What does this fold into?
Amino acid sequence: MTLDLASLAQTVDQAALEGCPIPMLTADHPSLDIETAYTVQRLSMDRRYARGESLVGMKMGLTSKAKMEQMGVHEPIYGHLTGAMTLADGAAFQLAGSCHPRVEPEIAFTLGTDISGHVDRNQALAAIATVHPAMEIIDSRFTDFKFTLIDVVADNTSACAYVLGPGQAVAGLDLAALELSLDVGGREQLKGMSSAIYGHPLDSLRQLCAMLDRRGEGLQAGQTVLAGAATAAVFLQAGDKVQLDIPGLASVGFSVEA
Ligand code: OOG
Ligand code: MG
It folds into this structure.
């Protein structure tokens, strides 16, 4: 079967719009490779931009062992974040319209300067304006939340929504020594260290820059970067109050409505 990348992008985009799970793309298109999957991801973003969404940042995914093991995919990936995916701190997330959303605890950066290419930790640090506690709501568009590396990349790495807590300047913070405590509806409590995120959240940012550089792209001042989850992700239920506490940084929360 010849690959029609625009129609694959339409397929994942439509599933996201309808909140309706679909079979993995690789089931019908076993020849799809990783670079082509990133092209499908960009084509699906073009569809969002055409509807008026705008790019506000990027996310890294599968940067922690806990996540790799939970999903059975063992390579870091990146996706795109739009303004339509932002949820205000303390706001309600509506389950209606999503497939089977899960939440995961993260560290986020907002960038004060552009950054691209192969950068060291000091250069990565210098580009960061503020650090935030963050939660990502991921919602794989694939049946049973099961996917291969290639499928999840084509599906914009399951990006659905994200919430940022109050930011602070990075000076004086040990970014690798933060403890993330997530409570989901009093049902599940998960703890993880920020060092679980690619060994160091700054290295996740560096890896994102290196991966984007392969396409001649970079990050811009003002953008948000989600560094990746420190723990496994937890399915959301209507009525949940979800809170992430990071001592030394801040807290962030949201509630879940049907
Ligand atoms: C893929 C996205 C993973 C993270 O932080 O590890 C991710 C998924 O698990 O659906 O965003
Ligand atoms: Mg994530």
